[in-house]
Each structure stands twice: as C-alpha cells, then as structure tokens.
Design a protein that fits this description.
single chain; 414 residues; alpha/beta; Rossmann fold; L-2-Hydroxyisocaproate Dehydrogenase, Chain A, domain 2; six-stranded mixed sheet; 35% helix; globular
Length: 414
C-alpha cells in the first residue's frame, strides 16, 4: 500500500501515483482526521466518492448490487490504523478518473444548509411546507422559484406563516429567488413537471408517462449546474426520479460535441427522492395485517419508485409470497387514490420529499436513489461527512435475484 499527502490531506492507495507526494505509513497513521482511499475507474459506472463503511469496499473490482451484500471480512491486507479509521467512519473512497476528484478533498458540509426548490406545484409547495415546519435545526433558508410568479408569491406568503405558537421552534425563512440564483445553494431540489396525467387516463405507471417531458426540462437545469460548477446536491423529486437522475447525470457530463467528459455533476451529487413514500405505503399496508406487521421492523424497500419496485417483508426471514403481495399493494397505491378522484401527492411530498431530505441533511438513515454501477438505485442510505454510506445486509438469494432483475431492467432503460 502507498501513502501520500495532497492538499494537506492523507491519501492511501493500492496503486502508485507518481504525481503525488509520497509519505510513510507512520505519517499516514498519525493523521486522526479523515483519510482518502484513491482508485482509478471509469466514471461511466463508478461514483466519484463514497463513504467506506467496511474495508472490503476499498478493493472492490466494480460497483454493482454486490456492494449491498454484507460479507465476512478479511482485513489481513489492511493496516490496523486504516481498519480503525474505517470503523470510525473516517475513510472516503475517491475515483481519480473524475476531473473534479480533488473537490472531494476540499469539501466541507455546511452547518446549516441553503435549500432552493424549483417547481411549486402540489408536490413542490407541500414539500416546502414540510421543510419550513421541521427544518429549523439544519436549514438556514429555503429559496423558491416557479415560472408562475403568483405561485412564488403565494408560497412565500403562506409558508412564512407556518409558525410554532410557543416560540420554541425556529423555522427557516422562505425567500423568492430568480433564475440566476437557482444554484446559489447547498441543495437544489427539482420539483418541476410538465404535468401529471389526468385522472381520466388509465395508465399502469403514471411515472413513466411523465419521463419524456420531464427529461427535456431537467436537461436545462443539469447544464446550468455544470456551467456554474455546482458543488452541492442536485435532488430530484419529480417522476420518474430514478430515470431523471440518470438523465441529469448524462446531460451534465456531455461536452458541446456530445461526448462524455465528466466535468459536470459527479454521480453521487445527484439523488432521487421517491422511495421514501413506497416504504411508508408498504408499512401502512403491512400494519393492516398481523401476518405482515413485522415489516415495520424487519422489512426493506429497494429499487425504483414505480414499476420494478421491490418490497421485502423481512431480511432475516424473507417470505416471497408475502413480499410480492406487499409489493403489489404498494406499487398500485397511487392508482387507488386516483380512482377516488384525487392526485396522490401529499404522502410523496412529505415522506419521499421533506422528511427524507431532512434525514439526508442530518446524516440519518433514509430511503433515496443514489448512483450504483451506472444505475440510480433506491435503497436505505445515509450521508456522512465522508460521503454516502449504503446499508449492507445479509440479503437472501431469492430477494437478491429479484433485485438483480430490476437492476438490469433499469440499466437497459437509460
């Protein structure tokens, strides 16, 4: 193993980097701050950085679903100081093939986040309300924008009147922003949509029907984020979140000649917020039946927000029949609400949006879609100072087979 000092940070690698200043293992071990393990791999299928939760992730051949599997560890080739650093969440993996890889060494998360929300329809407005109500501890202010100036005025007026009557809670101010200010923030939240299909339209998956129009809109924002050198999180709430995340990544990392150059948004900067409500819906249906009530403590949700969704009733005692039944109920819950004459936006805006975004900022476990081997994959994860940590589990073979089928389907779609 080789050890380096660069930009006043300690780096470790299994490969030699002649352009970096080499140091001794003792010097590396004496650094009690965060340590950066560096590697080199194609950005097309690899994140720029992530948090190393277990030492085997530093030597993984490729990024794919296998990174979610919990394996017995063999640390015989890893120095003791590095094992300890991993156990204390002090190690970040960095891919030096990204032209912007050194930005990871210099990044520090804000104490309070500046949030900008673009798109003030039903979902966007409700999401802003949730952030205003609950985000006083971690959000400095919330910028809002919509093409309709009256929507901006309405939500600025109404949300700033959401207030704790005791005066004990603080609430971030909601402020109108201009187009030029969209990326003057730590997290940009995309809630724009060309429109939700009418209730009269009988669609098996409403989200896919929205992709064509919404991908055209997100292209402009992805290119703008690239041109401004945006270093924060690009959060996608509009449907279908998983495919729009990948579209944003592709658009942002293409040069003027149409060739990939990976100088735009890094893969891990883009996150999709859609799985939170699917977990919440699964918990709702599971709680109605004693046979599936254990989902609330033992179950998990994986994959996309819509077709291909995977609900597992339990990780340790996985039951295929119960899981498939819960999956179907969860996947079609939005159609049930539409059949009543309403558009289902309240639970998505709060469970997938406000609450999951606040959990992200606070470094808490939650459900969202992040980049994994070229696919934006929904799973339980948390954002640490060292990067994104994906939950690793002893996933049963039957469940993992379902996950692989969905994963490959998503890979072929975009």
């Amino acid at each position: 193993m080789f050890y380096y000092k660069h930009l006043n940070r300690t780096l470790v690698s299994w490969e030699r980097y002649n352009q970096l200043m080499e140091i001794s293992e003792d010097d590396a071990a004496s650094d009690k701050g965060n340590i950066f393990a560096i590697t080199s791999s194609s950005p097309k299928n690899t994140r720029r950085s992530f948090s190393v939760s277990q030492s085997d992730l530093m030597s993984a051949d490729k990024e794919d679903l296998s990174m979610l599997l919990l394996h017995p560890l063999n640390d015989s080739n890893v120095p003791d100081f590095l094992i300890q650093a991993v156990q204390n969440n002090r190690v970040t993996m960095i891919n030096t093939e990204y032209p912007t890889w050194q930005n990871v060494l210099l990044y520090n998360a804000p104490e309070k986040w500046r949030i900008n929300v673009v798109g003030l329809g039903d979902v966007g407005g409700t999401l802003v309300s949730g952030l205003r109500l609950l985000g006083g501890d971690c959000i400095s202010h919330i910028g809002i924008y919509d093409l309709d100036p009256n929507k901006i005025k309405r939500w600025e007026f109404e949300t700033n009147q959401i207030m704790d009557p005791t005066g004990n809670l603080s609430h971030p101010a909601v402020l109108p922003i201009s187009e030029e200010q969209h990326f003057d923030c730590d997290m940009f939240i995309f809630c724009v949509t060309v429109g939700v299909p009418a209730l009269s339209e009988n669609l098996s998956d409403v989200r896919i029907a929205q992709y064509e129009g919404n991908s055209g809109i997100i292209k402009g924002y992805a290119l703008s984020a690239r041109s401004k050198g945006f270093k924060g999180i690009f959060a996608v709430v509009s449907d279908p979140v998983d495919l729009l995340c990948k579209a944003a990544f592709n658009f942002s990392n293409t040069d003027s000649n149409g060739k990939p150059d990976f100088k735009g948004l890094a893969a891990e900067q883009i996150r999709g917020y859609g799985l939170g409500v699917m977990h919440a819906r699964a918990a709702y249906f599971a709680g109605l039946d004693p046979e599936t009530a254990h989902y609330l403590t033992e179950g998990r949700a994986f994959g996309p927000h819509g077709e291909g969704l995977i609900i597992a009733d339990s990780i340790e005692k996985y039951n295929e029949a119960l899981s498939l039944d819960l999956t179907e109920k969860t996947k079609t819950a939005n159609l049930a609400v539409r059949s009543l004459g309403f558009k289902p936006y309240i639970a998505p805006a709060l469970s997938s949006g406000s609450l999951s975004i606040l959990a992200t900022i606070r470094g808490q476990w939650h459900y969202s879609a992040t980049f994994l081997g070229g696919v934006y994959w929904g799973t339980r994860n948390r954002l640490l100072p060292t990067g994104i940590e994906l939950e690793r589990l002893p996933i049963p073979n039957g469940l993992f087979s379902r996950m692989e089928n969905t994963y490959e389907s998503l890979r072929k779609m975009l």
